[in-house]
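Reopening this one. Same input as before:
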Amino acid sequence: MSTQLQVSTGQCSDAGRRPRNEDFHGIHIPSAGQLATKGIAAAIADGVSTCESGQEASGACVVGFLEDYFSTPESWSVQKSVQKVLTALNAWLYSQGQRNRDSGRGLLTTFSAVVLKSTTAHLFHVGDSRIYRLRDGDLERLTTDHQTFIGPGPAFLSRALGADLSVEIDYRKLPVVEGDLFVLTTDGVHGYLDDKAIGHAVRAYGMNLDTAATEIVRAALANTSPDNATCQIVRIDALPLQGPEEVYQELTELPFPPPLSPGMTLDGYRIIREVHASNRSQIYLAIDNETDLQVALKTPSVNYEDDLGYIDRFVLEQWVGRRIDNPHVAKVYVPTRACRFLYYVTEYLQGVTLRQWMHDRPNRRLEEVRKIVEQIAKGLQAFHRLEMLHQDLKPENAMIDYAGQVKLVDFGSTRVSGIAEIATPIERVGLLGTRNYCAPEYFRNEPGTTASDVYSLGVIAYELLTDAQPYGEMPHDGGPGRVGYKPACYRNPAVPQWVDGALRKAVHRDPKRRYQEVSELVHDLRHPNPGLIDQTPRPLLERNPVAFWRTTTILLLALVFYLLLRLAH
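Same output, byte for byte:
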């Protein structure tokens, strides 16, 4: 069984009757590491011939796409990576075209690309180039031509890269199987050769894809095509399908460390003492013998030595930490020596958990809370920029040092969009966070978004101000659906109503009515947002419980005196 994606390719491009070839095509097959996280990319483009710089446009797009896509973070999904790259390329083409519009040197091009990652094909398309798939002998067109017809004359492009400052890019993804062939053509081919003829040529010469592509281009030109003609074919020879045994062998390549005690040395790290232990992991303070640097070693618990899901998450936690460089996220060090056991090394944080800090400071001011929330938000933004969700945000997973700096720790529940696209036989558990801090959509088995992390941050902010949960204790069978939101200003009269409005929005049950970015919550915690203030009159008990009970007591005393006077008479 193959553990790597393998393809065969064929291509042919001919200027035909034109003086120059304004088509461009390319494919990039990366090394083994990026082959898993980024996949294989093939692209084709047709520079618009009515523009003097069509050749420059098509070449810049294909070359720029193949270079820049593989430079995007490995944590990004294919869709986000390609959208970012194409948006930048479109802006460059448009600006260049605007600069030279008087000379007629516009830069316009069609563009179609296939990214093969794991067991999925991701398709991106603008213009009238095409992508086909041949499966089991049947040819299927996967893209729609972006054309406009004005009268009986020729069609005009309704969409192209470089035509406007913004561009709409068609995107779809579909599962693939071994033997699938993807055929990319420019309109110089499919405009003069029907789908049946293209399918026949691929089936006839499928063992030699260069020959198949050449025959398709030759047939189109022989059929009076006056345009440049380009055909590119990619066949999937093997998919990276690992069986449970292969995954087990890969994940258990490094054994769990033995029990560690002060004075022991592990791969050049001298153990000083145990800092924290739970049923899932242990953390030790250690000294790097080479650098004398104090570090923290995190080791997995032997309770999970045969649990592939646990080991997979432990390895992923290390992978995540190494890719985030932010002062509000605990740093995970890249090892400089060979590791003989499964563990990873982080910076040693001298301080306490946010939970302990809350216990030590029972009366917290609003400004203190703001500063803590803002630091957590900056750490979360580092995750979100890499298209990661923390998914287990809680006071226990934030450390605060003695200078007041907050750092996020524990990335074992993090969802990485780019990694989630890679097929694996390991069962991925959906809900890994802590019940009281998890967004309600997780209990409904819905995918998380950045708004899900906003919910968790909102709960922490609410708890910092009130020492309570916004919906009370969460039921075990699913979220805060049966409990109403308790206003923070009811629990703590020092909380302004506009701050409560921000908290209410942050922890809204419906993720669509929640803040979508943590920066929005941070802003509204400092700047009154009139739109979030609840104008509905509330009972005095809710608005000012002290005044309510004082008034009630006075009235009851007055009633007692009145009754006593009546009895005396």
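So the earlier flakiness isn't reproducible anymore. For the record, The chain has 18 helices and 22 strands.
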